[in-house]
Design a protein that fits this description.
Elements lengths: L1 H17 L15 E2 L5 H5 L6 H10 L5 H10 L4 H7 L3 E2 L2 E2 L5 H4 L6 H10 L6 H21 L2 E2 L2 E2 L5 H5 L5 H10 L6 H21 L2 E2 L2
Parallel strand pairs: 1-2, 3-4, 5-6
Helix pairs in contact: 1-5
Length: about 210
Amino acid sequence: MSRLRSAFLGALCVAALTFAVGSTTHGQVGAGLLDANSVPEAELAAMPGMTADIATALVAARPFASIVDFNTFLVDHKLTEAQIAAFYLQAFVHVNLNTGTPEEILLIPGAGNRMVREFGEYRPWKTWAQFDKEISKYVGQDETNRLKQYVFIPVDLNTATDADILSIPGAGARMVREFNEYRPWKTKAQFDKEISKYVGEKETARLWRFVVIQ
């Protein structure tokens, strides 16, 4: 893991040039990176370290429950540490700020043990304003904005605004309509039943990662 983190740190110079992430993002999912669970296969095949065969296998294995599972897939398919680091500058399986494990957080490029501690200390996370306030105290706003790309605060199915829902990668106007239509949401089983009618089981499982029922 330490060599992989070193590769991540080396790639951060590229990240600074590649992404310009503002602090005015609406909704609950950090902007700036693609969701590795929903990138089209052809686009995946063009990413660092990927081939057409690996992209096909990746799509078949999706959705990945966590970045740890996704990272294991990339390692098993012989991507190098440098290739994985470069891939994570383009796409990632976002980490839930309120439930992410240390192992997940450590796969966020440049996060390190400091963010394992800080992400855990301020739970429950509720807004980006809270994240900006607390994390920028330690690393400044620019680095806070960069870290924000890799994480999400779960969207409450019963109170989320349309903008919150639209912040979920790939949700779109269809999910705004469906999420609102079935309120009040009470159980995951209800979510699985209703949403899978429109998008199938795999996409329903992908969407479930980003939501919570409170």
